[in-house]
Amino acid sequence: LRNGSSKSCGCLQKELAASKKFIHGLSYHPLKPIYYAMLSRCYNPNSNEYQNYGGRGIKVCKRWRDSIEYFINDMEERPNNQSIERIDNNGNYSPDNCKWATQSEQCRNNRNTRLINFEGKTQCLKDWAKEFGIKYSTLSGRINQYGWSIEDAFTRKVRHN
User: Fold this and answer.
1) CB-based contacts of 68: which residues, under 8 Å, 6+ apart?
2) How many other C-beta atoms can be found within 10 angstroms of the C-beta atom of residue 18?
3) How many CB atoms lie within 10 A of CB 52?
4) Exposed, middle or buried: residue 38 (CB in 10 Å: 0-12, 13-18, 19+)?
5) Quick one: pLDDT band at residue 62, thresholds 50, 70, 90?
6) Which pLDDT value is given to residue 112?
7) Most CB within 10 Å of its CB: which of 1, 9, 16, 140?
8) Are 86 and 97 in contact (CB under 8 A)?
9) Which whole number is the average pLDDT over 22-40?
10) Which secondary structure element, helix H or strand E, spans residue 98, and what is its range?
11) CA 72, CA 77: separation in Å to the nearest integer?
């Protein structure tokens, strides 16, 4: 150190080595598996889910693709038992199109869900059944099996035998 041939007693070498290994400090972050699963669905043709995401043209916004840190900051803390959901399921993964949702919310937001508009409000049949206090199977049967109009299905009283 005194004659200038060395800049450190060895501590500097350890610090430099440690700083090269340290990328973002998020190796064990709970959102890391969600982030990489999202990328895999969209960009890995070998992923089982690729056909429903990347194969349909669903992408991850550049901001999130460039950094897991942005993804974590934008999505914030994940509530218990919730997963990432795209609000518009034909849209890309981005801060303005993603939220945390329960399994039940996720099931209602998919390509196969039939949305029904009644009196200016649009929602799925399960939500209408809950709102009117009618069993889902009753409403579904009225519309799909018996061919009732939406208005009749929703407004006619249920007979109890």
Assistant:
1) 24, 26, 29, 31, 32, 35
2) 9
3) 14
4) buried
5) very high
6) 78
7) 140
8) yes
9) 85
10) strand 98-101
11) 8
